[in-house]
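To: structure desk
From: M.T.
Subject: fold request, one chain
Message: Could you run this one when you get a chance? Sequence is below, nothing fancy, just the single chain.
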Amino acid sequence: MKPKQPLTLIFLAMVLLFMGVAFMSKRALSIPVANQAQTLSDWAHGSGGTLKVMLTYPTELLSNQKNTVTLTYEPDAILEQNLASGYIFDAEFNAAGSVISPQRRMLFPLEKGRQSISWEIVPFTTFENEGVIQISLGDANLNGAYAISPQVTFNLAFEVRQSNGLSPKSSFYVGLAMVGVALLLPLIFFIMKKYSFGAKG
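Reply: Done. Structure tokens follow.
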């Protein structure tokens, strides 16, 4: 084996080791989560009931990665007694510099008990971002043909973090593989060196 080859092998092992640790650390970094809550009054039928709405979202987003924003809503006892009149839960999520799925605006018939909807937000730029969620209660005639008339608004502040293009779980496994290869390279060098010397002898 040529004199430069061992140094190249050691250098490659060190590079893989550092890269592996960096990839694995993505899994260890916890993303902070924020919560907000508001209440909507029943103006559609005037029952006197209310709808509790709770929002959960990450304050840091990974660029080019799916990040989940969840809206949970629950009618109080008075509103539940009047659901037969027909209510539509109307919610719209907007955020600049991002792709939102399945769609920005969603409408659902209001039902008993706690329910939730989720959006996936994928930012394609790395800068501070702001999101806005507008929500409203409507009657059974609401079909989304017109712009939303929000009763309450949630303002979301995001810090966008650079991503390596992999999910935290995939990043961990890739990093683990790199560390494994980095640890194997010196062993491979030792075996090849021993075999080379044995062949010469």
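Reply (cont.): The longest strand covers residues 129-139. Let me know if you need anything else for the meeting.
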